[in-house]
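#struct-help
A.M.: can someone run this one for me? Single chain, 203 residues.
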Amino acid sequence: MTIGKGTPYGELAPLPAHGVVVASDAEARHVVTEALRAGRPVPPLGLVGGDLCRTLGGLGDRDRLRGPEATTFPVDLGCVLLDGRRHWFVAHLVARRPLWRGRFALAMNAEWLGDLDLGPRAHPGDGLLDLTEGALGLRDRWAARRRARTGTHLPHPGLRTSRRAVARLEFPDGVPVHLDGEQVGTARELDLHVEPDALTVVV
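D.P.: on it. Structure tokens below:
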């Protein structure tokens, strides 16, 4: 059930025996993708690293995952059609050129992207993606990066933000697309939506 305001999120419950432990968002995405492309249920994921793990307060402790202090969460899954081919992501989508030149877009399901707090309002269980789109000059890019470490880069006149369950992004000249930290190709049309509560994760 999608989280509501004032609603408790997560419950004490360990990773079940068939759960899969992953150490990064990219590892989690690969497990998800393999299962969904094969038509199988996605197994519960035990998170010991990555931006989704950090967002959920994970400590990176493998032993904790199967102990009494383990916390289990229902988590949304991001889905995107890149020029018509379906992909999934657990933490974030980043469409950008090298050095963030030109127009870029972010879709955050987690709060963090590495050491940058690029989704200060993002919640992985609210049924929404936090989108940021825009373009910044060189000086603004450096200033925004410094402020992004504390999530204070927003609002910014060069950036547009929204929280949406469905979105379409167009880059007529194509743009490199990164899912959970890995570049998966270049696309001109990005059609995004959220699959609410599609994952069970444990930290």
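A.M.: thanks! The first strand starts at residue 11 and ends at 12.
D.P.: also worth noting: The chain has two domains: 11-75, 78-197.
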